Amino acid sequence: MRYAAIVLAAGFSRRFGGDKRLACIDGEPMLLATLRNLQLALAGNCRADLQVVLRARDAVVGSMLMGLVREQPGCLARAPVWPVGMGVSIAAGLDVLLERGCRPDAVAVCLADMPFVRPETLRYLLLAATAETICLPVYGGRRGHPVVFGKAFFAELSKLRGRRGAEKILRAHPQAVRELVVEDPGVSLDIDRPEDFHAAARRDPAGRTGTALDTAEDVLLAPPWG
């Protein structure tokens, strides 16, 4: 099996009141914390291609990720200016991934605002995947993220549009869905508002803490990738 991960990082954080991708986890912007976890998950027997989807115009975060670009040329994709939404971002990320010549058997769709997912959880989901399955984690009886789609569903992912994600694909193929129970609260710690962020930081099993970055200059002074 060959794998890839698409990181959705093109949102506008309207409910957060600021750019939540830059909210700080122990001195590191949330997006970088998420990507570092992914790097750990994709190492070893889950080596995979990485595709990060940013906004069409996103200079600050684009600059922050230049080290990643040097490591993996072509790994940044830009979502269309309009329409915006999770579905469009998934389609844009997958299209660029395939245009780069990557040919994964399964793709993990990951959210940039979920930095507390353990690397071993994503590795477990990937290794359980086949080309014909959709694997997702379940914690405390609730479905979470990331979700791993086999290549049988790539055509449908590429046609997604609008604000919603891939829920309709899961509804259309219930027989392909594999719910994998995990002992990882991070799969359900979705951060939409400042109170979500601070609650998630308090619950993080790794004991990390969260604060807010105030300015773009703070982000540009963050530790470089790698």
UniProtKB/TrEMBL annotation:
GO MF term (any one): nucleotidyltransferase activity
Keywords: Magnesium, Nucleotidyltransferase, Transferase
Limits of the MobA-like NTP transferase domain: 5-174
Residues in coiled coil: none
Pfam families tied to this protein: NTP_transf_3 (PF12804)
Gene3D superfamilies in alphabetical order: Spore Coat Polysaccharide Biosynthesis Protein SpsA, Chain A
TM helices/strands, residue ranges: none
Protein name: Molybdenum cofactor cytidylyltransferase
